[in-house]
Amino acid sequence: MTPASPRATAVRVLTSRTYGGGAAPASSLTGAGNARAAARTRGRRSGRALLPGGVGHTVTVPEGDVVWNTARRLHTALAGQVLTRSDFRVPRYATVSLTGQQVTEAVSRGKHLLIRTSGGTTVHTHLKMDGYWRIQPAHGAPPARGHQIRLLLGNAQWLAAGYLLGITEVIPTAREDQVTGHLGPDLLGPDWDQAAAVARLARDPDRPVGEALLDQRNLAGIGTWFLAELLFLRGVDPWRPVGEVKDLDALVALGQRLLEANKTRPGHTSTGDTTPGRDSYVYGRAGRRCRRCGTPVKRGEQGPPGQERLRFWCPRCQR
Ligand SMILES: [Zn+2]
Predict the structure, then answer these.
(1) Residue 276 among the catalytic residues
(2) What is the dotted CATH code of the domain comprising 1-18+182-319?
(3) How far is the CA of 316 from the centre of ligand 1 (A)?
(4) Given 62, 208, 238, 304, which residue is catalytic?
(5) Domain residues of the chain, as ranges?
(6) Rounded to two decimals, what is the model's pTM?
(7) Which residue, 95, 225, 244, 308, has most beta carbons within 10 Å?
């Protein structure tokens, strides 16, 4: 059952996002520990906000919508079929073979991807910064860029290649909680629970909302792109403490709607325009005029030491 060819839709997100030379986003988890102190310094009021805008290389970073879509395409290609090819190209699992096992499903949990087999095994992968999957016919040419492949899974019809995966591991399905149990409600999960997500956010009212929304323990699926756009759309400064955000429910609800609206298309848009360069209000637009008020968009860093992530915001529209 392959209603749409998984081949035709390579999973790589197509949107370009500009990062400055500074803090490369490190992890999708941000520690809560020193966040409060960092928040209080409101560092971007001083030097950080003066970082030059628009410089740097463009990279693509998968967020919850991309992982959801990736899982869906892997499910279409692999589920219900017996694996005839299994090739782990990471040292720890180099001798593991899942050949002969049937894939039962591929699902996303936040930004984690789980491929389950009938043998009670789960292949847990995470795209992190650069990872992506491509699916091609099983009997075509070998996948390109073989040196970047971390995992190949195939059946009689399709071959799925995982490139530059940040995590590739094999665990018993019964122990998936070890890798996803810490996650808050999944914005795109069948069990999405907005009230629970809001409650988790509210537990630390002094924490800057920009940090709290990225902490996957509060809610799972938002990355720096959606964060920037979501806070702009709600007019909320990333450094505003969670406890001072007027309508946390509405903020979280809009975050869910944004991911939902983007999950089936390549790339993201918050503006309704998918044209590169016109798809965001503030993300990647440092130094350029706010689409709403004309004020130059600012860029800064936020997060505990060593885990700083980029922020883009309009100092006039977001308070
Ligand atoms: Zn503005």
Answers:
(1) no
(2) 1.10.8.50
(3) 5
(4) 62
(5) 1-18+182-319, 19-179
(6) 0.80
(7) 225
Topology classification of domain 19-179: N-terminal domain of MutM-like DNA repair proteins (3.20.190)
Q: Which of 111, 116, 207, 298 is catalytic?
A: 111
> Is 176 one of the catalytic residues?
no
Q: How far is the CA of 66 from the centre of ligand 1 (A)?
A: 28
Closest CA to 40 of 170, 211, 160, 178: 211
Contacts of 279 (CB under 8 A, 6+ apart): 15, 267, 268, 269, 270, 271, 273
Q: What pLDDT was estimated at residue 265? A: 87
- What pairs with residue 148 in β-bridges? none
Q: Which of 256, 257, 317, 310 is nearest to 284 (CA)?
A: 310
CA distance 236 to 208: 11
Taking the centre of ligand 1 as the mean of its atom positions, its distance from the CA of residue 291, in whole angstroms, is 7
Instruction: Judge whether 246 counts as a catalytic residue.
Output: no
| Helix-helix angle 194-202:248-262, to 10 degrees | 130
- What per-residue confidence (pLDDT) applies to 266? 82
Please tell me which residue in 109, 234, 263, 309 is annotated as part of the active site: 309
Residue pair 138/157 in contact (Cβ under 8 Å)? The answer is yes
pLDDT value at position 38?
36
pLDDT at 74: 98
Q: Within the chain, which residues score under 70 in pLDDT?
A: 1-60
Tell me how long the chain is: 319
CA of 285 to the centre of ligand 1 (A): 12
- 163-177 per-position pLDDT tens digit: 999 999 999 999 999
d(CA 240, CA 302): 12
pLDDT at 49: 30
Task: Work out whether the CA dihedral 52, 54, 60, 61 comes out positive or negative.
Answer: positive
> 32: CA distance to ligand 1 center in Å?
29
Q: List Cα–Cα distances, 285 to 2, 224, 279, in angstroms.
A: 39, 13, 10
- Note the Cα 91 to chain centre separation in Å: 25
| Helix spans in 42-141 (H) | 64-78
Q: What is the pLDDT of residue 10?
A: 33
